[in-house]
Amino acid sequence: MSSGVTQRHRIGIVEDHESVVMGMAAMLSDEPDLDLVATASTVAELLRATVDLDLAILDLRLVDGSSPKSNVETLRDAGVETLVFTGAENPYLVRSAARAGVLGVVRKTESRETVVAAIRTAAGGGQVVTTEWAAAIDGDPGLSEVGLSPRQLEVLELYASGEKAVRVARLTGLAPQTVNDYLQRIRQKYAEAGRPARTKTDLYKRALEDGWLPYPERPSDT
């Protein structure tokens, strides 16, 4: 027989825009099973306030400049699962958080009903499967997978971000010829996937497309 007692989930939010925090508080105020018990502008601040949480709602861009990956890992180390709540304007940041093991990614532009339902699902330990989350995990479905190894990815990220091959060799501990061999193999894999990358600029573009490098920041309109 049911006791009739509603299980209440304790929610924390990491967000440095006051208006978003106020909006989240308003959305959850009438929900009998969701209690917003802590708000903070950084993950460290949230964990200092409390670790007794069922879920942390995390913005990707925070004033302290912390990375989504490190934030998600820090929360998980504290026993707190994460739901990303974002404008999703930067595919790299979304993909970085997704790889760290978040329960889902929800856009700030979604309806109240969608956001609350996502929070409820995640607070109960379930995955929130949205287009943004799936795309972050799988990459752009329109882009053929090239299947790079972890070592090849390391070389690609360094080289495509602007480092010379000799510098990549020093940073990775590889021989210069090994780095060149890796680059040749990376180019070959992209070509086989129908996404040729003959030049360094091409490799940079492919790394952006696949989420291995962040998109350049747009200058603010001031």
Instruction: Label the structural class.
Output: alpha/beta
Number of strands: 5
Report the uncertain regions: 218-222
Give the total of domains: 2
Helix content: 40-55%
* CATH topology-level name of the largest domain: Rossmann fold
Modified residues (4-aspartylphosphate): 59
Keywords: DNA-binding, Phosphoprotein
Domain Response regulatory: 10-123
Protein name: Response regulator transcription factor
Task: Please supply descriptive tags for the structure shown above.
single chain; 222 residues; alpha/beta; Rossmann fold; Arc Repressor Mutant, subunit A; 2 domains; five-stranded parallel beta sheet; disordered C terminus
What does this structure look like?
With 222 residues, this protein is an alpha/beta fold. It has two domains: 130 residues, Response regulator (Rossmann fold); 60 residues, Arc Repressor Mutant, subunit A (Orthogonal Bundle), CATH 1.10.10. Helix content is 47%, strand content 12%. α1 links the parallel β1 and β2. α4 packs across α6, α7 packs across α8 and α8 packs across α9. The C terminus is likely disordered. InterPro entries: CheY-like_superfamily, NreC/VraR/RcsB-like_REC, Sig_transdc_resp-reg_C-effctor, Sig_transdc_resp-reg_receiver, Tscrpt_reg_LuxR_C, WalR-like, WH-like_DNA-bd_sf.
